[in-house]
Amino acid sequence: MLWGRDKTREQGVEFGTLATLIDDHSYPATSTTLIDEYGEQEVELPDGTQTLADLFEPLQGEVFDSAADARQAVLNMVDDRAIGRKGYSDRTPPAPGETTEWDPESM
User: Which one of 7, 10, 24, 102 is separated from 85 by 20 to 30 angstroms, measured CA to CA?
Assistant: First the structure.
């Protein structure tokens, strides 16, 4: 399933022109091939950017059968800059005895 030319954002990650490049690429393809072709392309996150090369480097030649698989790998590999507001929750605060790495914030 292709995204379509107007959908470049998913789960807080802005793919920009990389969305079209991934969609138009021939599959199956390896992470190494995608790095060679598009490694300098950046995805925008709520708190910074990452290049495709940075995201796919740890995958060491993993094979993607489709554009959807490649996009999902990007979403799986983004770091904590994709989280947005750390510690934010619209759920109840931690239960008694439960610990968090940050103070929960709720709106």
Answer: 7
Helices (H), 7-61: 17-24, 31-38, 52-56
Report DSSP letters for the chain, one per residue: ----TT--EETTEE-THHHHHHHHS-SSEEHHHHHHHHTT-EEEETTEEEEHHHHHGGG-S-EESSHHHHHHHHHHH--GGGS-STTB-SSPPPPTT---SS--B--
Instruction: Please classify residue 54 by burial: count the beta carbons closer than 10 Å to its beta carbon, then call 0-12 exposed, 13-18 middle and 19+ buried.
Output: middle
What is the percent of the chain with per-residue pLDDT over 90, rounded to a whole number? 54
Q: What is the pTM of this model?
A: 0.71
